[in-house]
Amino acid sequence: MEAPECVPGDLGARAAPVARFAGRLRQGLGPGQGDLGDRLPAARLRPHADRTRGALRRRQGLPQDRARQPAARAEARVVSTKQTLLDSIAYVAWHGQQVAALAPDRVVIAQPDRPDLHNYAGTTHAGAIYTLAETAAGVAADQLAAPWGGFILLAATQVRYTRRAQGTLTAEARLAAATDAAALRDEFAASGRGALAVDVTVRDPQREPVLEGRFDYAIRRRKT
Question: I want to staple 164 with a disulfide (CB 3.0 to 4.6 A). Which of 2, 41, 123, 143 is the partner?
């Protein structure tokens, strides 16, 4: 479409064609009807499917469902509470351990790579690796027992060191596959006692296991 001609000095003559021109663009007339449809792709004249708000949010990596945001905030509060608990234990806090992930069936704790956590060979000390594993196992066991009014006591462990450890380490803890949480809850409610096992794997930055172990905990009722 050719640009509208305007007569110099006549504001009305200039404004009217421009208004008609803009109006025809807003109407989205097709090719051959006097608009720009024969020159520009259709996507330039009407909203395209991939330009919807949802598509833009996906492209930008933003949350898609606002309903999930309260759940995410609740999870963040739980993580913060657990982190505060770990920080209150001086020995754990000294290791610099951080809650990296927290779910009903999975706990991940991270430990930094620091010279004061190394052994004489310059790799992470076996004791520091063990402490990381036990912290993750303890958090996993505690989040099951605490809502019942119970506290945990470490009763036994079996660990195996699989390779030298270097770099930031992460410990992933899960309740043992044979755990029957409902039966354990009923047993604890009746007797104030219980026992559970937690499996832990500590990995290096390359996701290679450096420790594998099982931690057995006794559960006892808190005295009020």
Answer: 123
